[in-house]
Amino acid sequence: MDNRVYYGEYSLKHWIDLILRKNIILPEYQRFFVWDEKKVETLIKTFKYKQFVPPVTIGAFKFDQTNQNLILDGQQRLTSILLAYLGLFPDQVVYKKTIEMFASENDDEEEEDERLDDVVEWTFTKLTAKGKTKEGIISGIKEGNYKKINLDVTAEFFQNTFLGFSYLVPVISDEKQQQNYYSSVFRNINIQGAPLLAQESRASLYFLDKDLVQFFAPDFLKKYVVKGVSGEAKLDFVRLLSLLSQYKNDNDSKYIARGYKPNMEKYYEEYIYAVVSDINSTRYGQFSKFFPGRKYEVQIENLKQTLSDLEIKTEFPSIIDLDMYFFGLVYFTVFRNRKINTAKKEALKAAIELEIKGMKNNPSHTRAPNNLGHLRYRIYTSISFFRAYAA
User: Directed axis angle between helix 237-250 and helix 264-277, to 10°?
Assistant: First the structure.
């Protein structure tokens, strides 16, 4: 029997009810809500003017003998409809000011940010956790989180306006096969008006095996970023893992990522597939040999603790800086499960900073830091520095 696809439409009110009752849910790999208030207003006007709005895509997923309906495409649209209905919008400006105020004024009291929703990394699940009705949700809102919006919508608007859908029902029942199927679907979908970044799209692959999510993307690493003149980029842990996996397999940096320069994303994806499938890759080695029993938690905790003990900064001015601190550190704490002598942390960091300065005095290195020659040199050099401090 083939996979099936059904088509139809629901009123906006029915979509809202599905969200509030949690009859449709976001898969864990979905990105955060990224639309601004203007885009929400534009969507509502599009409905009012009876113009075309792309349908959403829902997928049936069977998990532990229970059926779930996953939102594969349309999160931004459905969230916007819900916010218009509630008359709310997550206010990042006020939220950040509130957090800063409590951080400076209430050191000895309960942290206010523990009672606030993080609206920087936000999805509508923050609201549906508060209640199943408009009144229940609004009563659970904390000041300093959301602002009120009025898009001039009525109950009749939500009852009489419709949004289409496609509903995917895979014939397969095996959970991992379903995850594989939906990861593929998700990555082939172009989110309206906001294409996924490579890392956001790749994240769906982590859930081919949910047990490995915290290996590919540990929560504590989210705060580490590169802040340069062109913007901010979060630490890409899969990038570090894949490159270091090949280094450990080859015991050499000479051929790392050879032939992948035009498409490094393919290199990272192939690493994820190799780990999930636990194949003995000629390039990356075998995950279960590096991590017996496919257990990695101790090593990841080792990395977390060492980052704290070394007092590694969370913001880096360039990828050169981040790489020099992380390649050697991740290699020894995660791939070798060794401890770093943190008693000599100042000497270690001083040596790294001096090497970074030398790299940045090389115009070729600063102009093209992702050149494979420069990248391999950073891997080799960072590991060399940390080797002297690895117990």
Answer: 70
